[in-house]
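Hi U.,

Before I forget, here's the chain from the pilot set. I'm dumping it here mostly so it's searchable later in email.
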Amino acid sequence: MARPRSFDPNMVLDHAVGAFWRNGYDAAGIEALCDVTKLGPGSLYAAFGGKRDLFLAALDRYRDQVSADAIRRISSPASGLSGIRAYFANLVDAIAEGRRRRGCLLTNSLIEMGERDPAVSEKVILNLVRLETAFATALTRASADGEIGPEPGAKAANFLVCVVQGLNVLANTQPNRQTLEQIVASALRAL
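Structure:
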């Protein structure tokens, strides 16, 4: 008979997210993952399967926590343009203050593993589509409210996703706030 779990799986995943975000998939060894999760290898494998399974679960946890919060920022304000601005202001703050000095776990994972692991690529692409949809909805609202010109369409939402991904990669260089704000201001002027 199996012993009941004496740990919170979400806390374990939160620690795994941190380890994978700091180190990437390849550099996050099982021993290091056991250290940060406070689980022995047997417990880790029993609960999550192998390292890859833990990684995929960590990507889902990151998406459900960080990415879902970002999409809520875009969608929450009554003003579509305010939602877009709130999203970018939060992203700039997080990068400039060091909370996202490693960019985005999903973006980094796509760069590291996208070509060799279709499941990773699929998870990241799904998240990018969710982000693009949130931007498109906000842009439609902004256009309908006269905040911007005629509806810019899907290309503008796709452009904003590209700006986000560029900022996520740039975050690894520890850019200053002024640089980040100039990039965002240029992107928003393009709308």
